[in-house]
Every structure is written in C-alpha cells, then in structure tokens.
Amino acid sequence: MLVLDRSATLAWLFEDERTPALEALLNRVGDIGAVVPSVWCLEVANVLQIAVRRGRIDQVFQDACLKDLRLLPVSTDPETHLHAWNETLSLAARHRLTPYDASYLELAKRRGLELATLDRNLRRAAETAGVALARETAQ
Asked: Which of 16, 81, 83, 136 is the most exposed place for a label (fewest CB within 10 A)?
C-alpha cells in the first residue's frame, strides 16, 4: 500500500499529463491499494469541477473519471482529522506546504508508507522528512 496524492491521481485522468510511469503507478495501486487523507476526494472533485468550468473536460468525462476512481482499491484514512491541528499543521509550517499537501505527508509518515506525488514541493518535503517516494513519481 502507498499514499496517493491528488497530483498523481489527476495526472492519470488527463491524457496530456499521463506518462508510462503513471500508468505503472495506476497498475501498482490496482495491485497493492492506496490510502488517502480525507481531503483527497474533495481535492480531486475540485480540480475536475474547475476543468469542466474552463472547458478542458465535459461533465460526461468528469463523471467517467469519478466512476473509474471508485473502482480503485483506495481507502480513506479515518484519522486525518485527528492529526490536522498538530502534526499536519507542524509539517505544513516546517516544509512550507499547504495543510492539504501536508496531510499526505503526515499520513505517509505516520503509516510508514511511500508517497506517490508529482508535486515538487511535496516531494522535497518528503525527502527532507525521510518519507520514501513511490518509484514511479520520484523523478
């Protein structure tokens, strides 16, 4: 199992952002599963909604993406909120991340899991914090 962030998730969905490494990550998540903080669903939904508003995708594509994501073995961490005002906020301040991004780092650190992210600042923070990056996103 690994921690999957919104940047890696969304890159699968948009064809112009998809790479062979992300396809491999998708297959790996299908095999071993992933865990996400509770903000993941809202972050993914927000980006898709903005893409619809801007005409990058249509509602049909958005709905198909959400249907496909529901099929993946992704579980939501039930303890994200318990760490939000302590460790997550501390990690956000220490690494100059948003609390949203820090929630992925906190989860990976707490559970001792690899982090799959394309976000440059989050990758740098993970490396500094001693959190392993998923090989498919550790550019």
From this structure: 16
Amino acid in the structure at residue 124: R
Other C-beta atoms closer than 10 Å to the C-beta of 65 total: 20
What residue segments make up the domains of the chain, in order of their start?
Answer: 2-129
Structure tokens at 119: 């976000």
Beta bridge partners of 35: 3, 75
Homologous superfamily (CATH) for 2-129:
5'-nuclease (3.40.50.1010)
pLDDT at 8 over 90: yes
19-46 pLDDT, tens digit per residue, is 899 999 999 999 999 999 999 999 999 9
Contact yes or no for 43/57 (Cβ under 8 A): no
Nearest to 11 by CA among 105, 107, 116: 116
